[in-house]
């Protein structure tokens, strides 16, 4: 499993690995990632598994090929990947996007090891755009991605797999865990993902524009990333809001179990998780993501009772207006529309199962 850089590239790999191990406990999963702090934190979830780190460098256009630092990291990553392949001799290499996955997946394809890539977003990333022309199979989360990669064969729409634990209903367990009450509406604020610090700032500003009567009806679970927890919880106290803040929280089953609606970016994994849990959201696409989060949000909001707002158009007051509109809707659960369209027909487990099927088929093509 070649993955890394962000949770959006890593968690789908964890999810499908879980399904593969469920089918055959003897299957050995080897992870290849980068050396970032977020990766060190996330990979603690799979403690005991084999994890290798390789060098990687983001490709920023053909000018990168003239950059000595980029070339050094790329060649180092390719050499490290070659050595790992010679040592582990895998039956399949699956790449989940991001520049840390490129070296391993590319070298594997050159060595004729069966290869598959999984693209989580509507707009494919740079690594997968290149790899799509070398690998044996391409798994897509969205049908709309096919045209953007120019694929005519060797692809399948599998969806974006999520961990099975997230699917379980655990509200009665989650409420006391966070010190929340069942008579309040729970807002999840995901401000810990890539580039999401501005969401933290906007949300804390928005609190002053929410009427006191509405504040008494809500409780906030805020995953605030690098922002100091004490600072966030003090802001809650001053605003008169019941809330808990965490920098990172690995029990996302409890997080989603207690959540009634959410505020966050439009990363593919987050969108799939709230789709499965049928959680409406106010989405703020990351503006520096080459537009891929905006496209994710557009497709998602067509099939789910959610809205997206451009960050450049938002102030604390305008964000408060969007949140108040949702809060008023959620006071009557009947106003929330169920997921509809193609996604509604897909069973929650299918994405994980479909991708595992495709991987096993690809591993046996030679």
Please provide a brief summary of the model:
It contains 15 helices and twelve strands. The protein has 366 residues and is α/β, with parallel strands linked by helices. The strands form three sheets. Strands 9-8-7-10-11-12 form a six-stranded parallel β-sheet, sandwiched between helices. Strands 3-4-5-6 form a four-stranded parallel β-sheet, with helices on both faces. A two-stranded parallel sheet has the order 1-2.
Q: What integer is the average pLDDT?
A: 87
- Strand order of the main beta sheet, please? 9-8-7-10-11-12
The CATH C-level class name of the largest domain:
Alpha Beta
Uncertain runs are: 334-349
CATH topology of the largest domain: Rossmann fold
Order of helices and strands: HEHEHEHEHEHEHEHHEHEHEHEHEHH
Query: Helicity range of the residues?
Result: 40-55%
Query: What fraction strand?
Result: 5-15%
Q: How many strands in all?
A: 12
End-to-end separation in angstroms reads: 19 Å
Radius of gyration: 21 Å
How does the helix and strand content classify structurally? alpha/beta
Output the number of helix runs: 15
- The second-level CATH architecture of the largest domain is 3-Layer(aba) Sandwich
Mind describing the biggest β-sheet?
6 strands, parallel
- Could you name the CATH homologous superfamily of the largest domain? Glycogen Phosphorylase B
């Amino acid at each position: 499993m070649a993955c890394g850089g962000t949770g959006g590239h890593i968690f789908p790999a964890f999810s499908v690995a879980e399904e593969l191990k469920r089918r055959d406990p003897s299957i050995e999963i080897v992870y290849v990632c980068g050396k970032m702090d977020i990766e060190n934190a996330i990979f603690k979830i799979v403690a005991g598994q084999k994890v290798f780190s390789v060098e990687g460098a983001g490709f920023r256009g053909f000018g990168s090929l003239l950059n000595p630092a980029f070339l050094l990291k790329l060649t180092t990553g390719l050499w490290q990947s070659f050595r790992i392949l010679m040592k582990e001799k895998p039956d399949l290499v699956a790449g989940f996007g991001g520049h840390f996955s490129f070296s391993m997946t590319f070298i594997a394809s050159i060595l004729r090891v069966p290869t598959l890539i999984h693209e989580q977003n509507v707009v494919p990333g740079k690594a997968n755009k290149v790899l799509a022309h070398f690998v044996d199979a391409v798994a897509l989360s969205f049908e709309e991605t096919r045209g953007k990669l120019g694929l005519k064969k060797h692809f399948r729409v599998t969806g974006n797999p999520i961990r099975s634990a997230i699917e379980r209903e655990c509200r009665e367990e989650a409420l006391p865990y966070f010190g929340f009450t069942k008579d309040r509406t729970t807002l999840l604020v995901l401000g810990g993902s890539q580039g999401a610090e501005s969401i933290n700032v906007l949300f804390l500003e928005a609190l002053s524009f929410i009427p006191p009567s509405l504040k008494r009806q809500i409780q906030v679970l805020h995953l605030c990333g690098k922002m100091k927890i004490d600072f966030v919880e003090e802001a809650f106290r001053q605003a008169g809001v019941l809330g808990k803040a965490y920098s990172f929280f690995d029990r996302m089953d409890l997080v989603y179990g207690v959540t009634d609606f959410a505020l966050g970016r439009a990363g593919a994994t987050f969108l799939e998780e709230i789709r499965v849990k049928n959680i409406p959201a106010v989405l703020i696409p990351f503006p520096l993501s080459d537009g891929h989060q905006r496209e994710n949000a557009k497709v998602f909001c067509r099939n789910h009772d959610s809205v997206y707002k451009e960050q450049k158009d938002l102030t604390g007051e305008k964000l408060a207006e969007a949140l108040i509109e949702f809060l008023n809707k959620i006071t009557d659960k009947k106003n929330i529309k169920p997921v509809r369209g193609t996604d509604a027909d897909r069973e929650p487990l299918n994405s994980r199962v479909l991708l595992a099927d495709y991987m096993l088929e690809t591993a046996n093509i030679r």
